[in-house]
Each structure stands twice: as C-alpha cells, then as structure tokens.
Automatic annotation (TrEMBL):
It is found in: Mitochondrion. The gene is CIT2. SUPFAM superfamilies: Citrate synthase. Its main location: mitochondrion. One of its GO terms (biological process) is carbohydrate metabolic process. The lineage of its organism: Eukaryota, Fungi, Dikarya, Ascomycota, Saccharomycotina. Belongs to the citrate synthase family. The keyword RNA-binding does not apply. GO terms for molecular function: 2-methylcitrate synthase activity. InterPro entries: Citrate_synth-like_lrg_a-sub, Citrate_synth-like_sm_a-sub, Citrate_synthase, Citrate_synthase_AS, Citrate_synthase_sf. PANTHER family: CITRATE SYNTHASE, CITRATE SYNTHASE 3, MITOCHONDRIAL. This is Citrate synthase. Gene3D superfamilies: Citrate Synthase, domain 1, Cytochrome P450-Terp, domain 2. Keywords: Acyltransferase, Mitochondrion, Transferase, Transit peptide.
Length: 463
C-alpha cells in the first residue's frame, strides 16, 4: 500500500512548489552544519581511496538512494510505487499500458511532492513551449561532422547553450547567494526542455542527412516530442520505421519509462557526481551537465548501453540464432572473459542484486508478448540474464554478477528501429539530466561549497 505523499494545490506551479519546500530543508541543513559537523558517518581506508571511493558517504544527494540489495528508491519509493502514483500523459490517464512521465519524475525528485495531473499537464506544456533551439545552436550542430560521436555532439550542444545562461548573467551582475537557485532553476528547466530537439537534431544530422523527422507538438509531453523528433510516431511526416499506431504508442511509452527510470541513481555515479562537482565551482547548469554527459560517454558507465546491443547482436549471430542453447551461450561468455573483456550490462559499483530498472525494462517487453514474440535479441537478453550470473560467479571476480540497467533497454529501442548503436547513450543523456539537475538546484538552494577533497600519494598510504 502506498504511504501518503504530500501534494499541494493543483494550481501551484513547479517553482512555487519548490519554493515552499525550501525553508524546511535550509533549516535542516543549518542544523546539521551547526550541530552535527563532527558526526562520523563512515571510515576512510587506503583500500577505499585507491578503489574508487566505493562506499564513501561523501556527497549530499537528496532525491534518491541506491540500496545494494533493493536498488533505487526515489524519496524512499520503489520503481513500482512511482509507476502507480506519478502522473501520465493527459490523454492516456486511463490507459493501463501507458507509463508515467519523466517530467512527473523530475517534479517528484526536485520537490519530494507528488504532482497532480493538472500540474503535470501544465508543466509538459511549459517544456514544449521552451523546446525550440536558438539559431546559433542549430548552426553549431549543423557544422559538426557526422563522424563525430553523437555523445560528443550532445556535450557540445549542451555546453554551447551556456551562451543563454541566466545564472551566468545574473552571477556576473552580482546577485546575492540566496538567489542563485532561482537562475539555476530557470537554466535547468530550459535545458531539459531543449533536450528532445537537441537529441532529434543529432540523430537526424548523423544518420538522416539533416532531414526533418518529426514535429514538436505543444499539446504533447516531453517523451512524445522526443519520440516524434526521432521519427518514431506514426503521425509524423516521416515515420522512419513504418511503425503502426500500436507500435508508435508503445515506443513513446518506452521512451517515457526509460527516461523516467534512468534519470537519477543517487549521487556517486560518474555523470551525477561530475555534474555536482563542476557545478560546485558555480559553473552554470549547461557547463555542469555537459561535463556529466562526457562522463556518461565512458564505456564503464552510460556507453555500456551501446556496448550491450553490439554484444547481443554479435552473440546472436555467433549462436546462429540458437538463443536457447545455454551451453553455447556459456561458451561464448567464457570466450569473452578469457580474453580479459567484460560482459557488458553486468556488474555494478553499488548493487549486489539484479537492477530493478533492468527488471522494469524487461517487463515492458514481456507485457507486449505478441509484439516481441519473434524478437530473438530480446529473448536472448532474457535467457542471458538467467545464464550469465552463474558464469560470472564461477569466474569469481565480479562483486555483482547480475544484469544492470543497460542490459535490457537497448534491445527494446532496437526492436522499434533505433539500430544505430552509437546513438543509444544519447537517449540516456537526455534522461540523466533530470536527476543531476534537480540536485544542482538544491546545491544552490543550500549554498553548498566548492568540492575540494584531499588527495594523498602512494608513499603516504604505504607508511
Ligand atoms: N564482466 C567481467 N568482469 C567484470 C564485470 C563484468 N561485467 N564487472 C566487473 N568485473 C570485474 C572487474 O573488471 C574487476 O576486475 P579486476 O579486479 O581484474 O580489475 C572485478 O570484476 C571487480 O569489479 P567490481 O568491484 O565487481 O566492479 P566495479 O565496481 O569495479 O565496476 C562496473 C563496476 C559496472 C564498471 C563493472 O561491473 C563493469 O565493467 N561492467 C560492465 C560494463 C557495464 O555494464 N557498465 C554499465 C554500468 C551501469 C551504468 O553505470 O550505466
């Protein structure tokens, strides 16, 4: 049963809802700062310092926590709970196959309050109104070679938007520290709003000669517009993959679920931590998140999304479509491990059980059993999730032999026709904005200081 969650009047917008939550949180921050500064919350060890700071509780992060065994909780709520109480698109409220919206998740992450349907309808509309790209950005994107990795293009586009940063301008004009959050908030909303158009343009420029693939629709939600600009909705002038009405509806819901679930995973992952670190120097949200995107582009983090699909496609071809043959699958995996390669989509820095985001994405396909009945890649991912943990356990190195978030989502997009491997992490990049940017706003509300941990050399550690 769902616990009760605060929700304010349906007429209060996101900024006011946030504003209402600020005094209590500022008071709590001051209390901790004044009274509990010396409270111990863990021990530092030489092993932790040379081992990527695993388990160091050294970052303030408000919206989510990852439990090693249960996975992500957003303000204490599981994925399934969020799926039940967060608002859907206004014209699909009663559709059981329709998923809740990433903008609902952003609202919840940022304020800790459940938004009403009216609030989300208005917020989706605000995002659509702010979605257009300035001319200079279109020109920058058009000037990039299509051979440039789409993640590099994404990072360039986001950092270029700092040309219009309200925070940077306000800071230069000397505003008081207590007001920083308001400009950070405006920049963050503008950035999130523009991501569908940026992502759509990168896709079109890189793979479709800059052709127009869809339209921004002011009456639709953020994910619908993102799907449309990727040429995935059946009403578009160019329905690239010739999806029928049901498939188009499904793929929009895939984008909704994927983006809502990939948005935040507490503070220590590379993209979130990098955004927070760069933002701690008072770099504006565009510069901060652009740095986060560069971290997401690493193969041990978000780029695993592309590596998983490459790996599944290659394994399927190697198995000659014999996807239920566990002996052959095990042999294939041992081949990888013996050549010192990792199994993409498996393992995690914190989790010690299968990632519930993996399960939720797998369920998306399983619920559409007719649609996915003949999709060998999807079924291979499922079979692999039952076989690979045993192999990794025997291999004996990986602390978490189970599938992570990147394991299942790529093949779902592949099914609906997004087959350009290098592009997968760009969708992750659009999604990941919502968690780190919510935290960046809180960083400015609380006035967190510049991050400056102490480093130590090996000689000192060896003493
Ligand atoms: N396949 C093979 N070996 C693996 C492995 C995997 N999937 N995951 C971990 N290992 C190995 C590590 O390489 C390490 O080996 P060495 O001791 O020789 O260096 C050993 O097991 C211990 O690693 P760990 O403590 O279990 O894992 P880390 O916290 O160091 O790394 C992660 C976590 C995700 C980088 C790692 O599991 C990995 O490389 N996985 C494959 C890539 C991937 O799926 N990344 C996506 C993660 C989700 C995301 O952030 O998007």
């Amino acid at each position: 049963m769902l616990r009760s969650i605060r929700s304010y009047s349906t007429h209060v917008d996101l900024k006011t809802t946030l504003q209402n939550a600020i005094p209590a949180k500022r008071e709590l921050y001051q209390y901790v700062k004044k009274n509990l500064a010396n409270k111990e919350i863990g021990q530092l060890t030489a092993g932790g310092t040379i081992g990527g700071m695993r388990g160091y509780k050294s970052l303030l992060w408000e919206a989510s926590v990852v439990d090693p065994n249960e996975g992500i909780r957003f303000h204490g709520y599981t994925i399934q709970e969020c799926q039940k109480f967060l608002p859907k698109a206004k014209d699909e409220i009663n559709d059981p196959k329709s998923e809740f919206l990433p903008e609902s998740m952003f609202w919840f992450l940022l304020t800790g309050n459940k938004p009403s349907q009216d609030q989300i309808n208005e917020f989706s509309n605000e995002l659509a109104l702010k979605a257009g790209l300035p001319d200079y950005l279109n020109k920058i994107l058009d000037s990039l070679p299509s051979s440039l990795h789409p993640m590099t293009q994404l990072s360039i586009a986001i950092s270029a938007l700092n040309n219009d940063s309200k925070f940077a301008k306000a800071y230069a004009s000397g505003i008081p520290k207590n007001d920083y959050w308001e400009y950070t908030f405006e920049d963050s909303i503008n950035l999130i709003a523009k991501l569908p158009a940026i992502v759509g343009k990168i896709y079109s420029n890189t793979y479709h000669n800059g052709e127009k693939l869809g339209e921004l629709n002011l009456n639709k939600d953020w994910s619908y517009n993102l799907s449309s600009l990727l040429g995935l909705t059946s009403n578009d002038s160019l329905n690239l993959n010739k999806l029928n009405q049901d498939q188009s509806k499904d793929v929009v819901n895939l984008v909704r679920l994927y983006c809502a679930l990939h948005g935040d995973h507490e503070g220590g992952n590379v993209s979130a931590h990098t955004t927070h670190l760069v933002g701690s120097a008072l770099s504006d949200p565009f510069l901060s998140y652009s740095a986060g995107v560069q971290g997401l582009a690493g193969p041990l983090h978000g780029l695993a999304a592309q590596e998983v699909v490459r790996f599944i496609v290659e394994m399927n071809s190697n198995l000659q479509n014999d996807i239920s043959n566990s002996t052959k699958i095990e042999e294939y995996l041992w081949g990888l491990l013996n050549s010192k390669r990792v199994i993409p989509g498996y393992g995690h820095g914190v989790l010690r059980k299968p990632d519930p985001r993996f399960e939720a994405m797998l369920q998306f396909g399983l619920k559409r059993s007719n649609e996915f009945a003949n999709d060998e890649l999807f079924h291979l991912v499922k079979n692999l999730s039952e076989i690979a943990p045993g192999v990794l356990k025997k291999h004996g190195k990986t602390k978490n032999p189970y599938p992570n978030v990147d394991s299942s989502s790529g093949v779902l997009f592949y099914h609906y026709g997004i087959k350009e491997l290098l592009f997968f992490t760009v969708i992750f990049g659009a999604s990941r904005s919502i968690g780190p940017l919510s935290q960046l706003i809180w960083d400015r509300v609380l006035g967190l200081p510049i991050e400056r941990p102490k480093s130590v050399d090996l000689k000192t550690l060896a003493q």
